[in-house]
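agent> Task received from the user: take the single chain below, predict its 3D structure, and emit C-alpha cells. No templates, no multimer pairing.
agent> Plan: (1) validate residues, (2) run structure prediction, (3) serialize to C-alpha cells, (4) report one or two observations.
agent> Step 1 OK, no nonstandard residues flagged.
tool_call: predict_structure(input=
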Amino acid sequence: MGKFRDAMSDAMALRGLAPRTQDAYLHWIRRLVKFSRVAPDQLTAEQVRAFLLDLIQERRLSFSSFNQALNAARFFFLEVLRKPFVVEGLRFQRPARILPVVMSDEEVRRLLAAAVSLRDRALLETAYATGMRLGEVIHLLLTDIDSQRMVIRVEQGKGRKDRYVMLSPSLLETLRAYWRSQKPRTILFPGKGGKEPLHPTSAQKAFQRARERARIEKPISFHTLRHTFATHLLEDGTNVRTIQSLLGHRSLESTQRYTHLAKNYLNQTKSPLDRLRGEETRV
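)
tool_result: status=success, residues=283
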C-alpha cells in the first residue's frame, strides 16, 4: 500500500474516524488490493464488485463485515483516489433483527452474589446499575464518581459523546468498600500495574466466572448487563426517552427494541385465545 496507506490514514484522521474503524478500513483495502492484484490507484469499480461478491458468496461474510468492507472501499475511492464510486447491483446488507437475551431479577442477584472478588462485584454492579458499555466501565476514573450529585460522568463514550448516568446509593456503598480494600489511585478498575485500565478480556472473564458459579445457563455476556439494565428500567415504568439518554443511544429506535423484552408489556397484553375461552365459559 505504501503512500496510499499513509494517504488513507491521513484522510481517516481528518474525518475523525475511530481508531478501530481506521484499522478495519485499512484491513479491507489491503484485502481488496491483494484480491485484485493491481496497484491501489488502478482499482476499478468492477474489481470492487468482484471482491464484494466473493465475500458474500464464497467467504459467507456476515452482514456487518460486508457493510464495513463496502464502506472502506467507498471511502478509499472518494477520499483517497478522488474517483466516483458506483458499484452496480450492490447495496448495504440489512442484518437480521435479533433481540438480546436479558436476565431476570433473580438471575442478576445470583450473578452478583457469585462474584469471585470485591473488585468483580463492583465491576458487575457498576455495569448493571448504570447500563454502561464494558469499555466505558473499565475506563472510569475516580474523579468520574460524583457522590455529591449522585451521578457518574461517562466521558467520550461510543460516538465520542459525554453523558451522565445515575449513581445508585447501593452501588456507591459497594464502590466505597472496594476503594477501601483496593485503594485504586486514578483509574477505578486498573489492570495489572495500576497504570492502565483493566483489559476487556479480564472483565469478560470476571463475568463468566460469576455466571458459572451462579449456574445461569442462558447465552449471556458482560454486555447482557446493559440490556438487562434497560429492560428492567422499562419494566419499572421509566420513560423510554430517559432510557435512551442513559444508554447514550443516538436513535430512539435502538432503545425501543427493549419494549419487545419488557415482561410488563407482554404480560399486560391479553391473548385473543383467552378471550375466546372466556366466551366459551359464559356460554
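agent> Step 4: summary for the user.
The two ends are 79 Å apart (CA to CA).
agent> Done.
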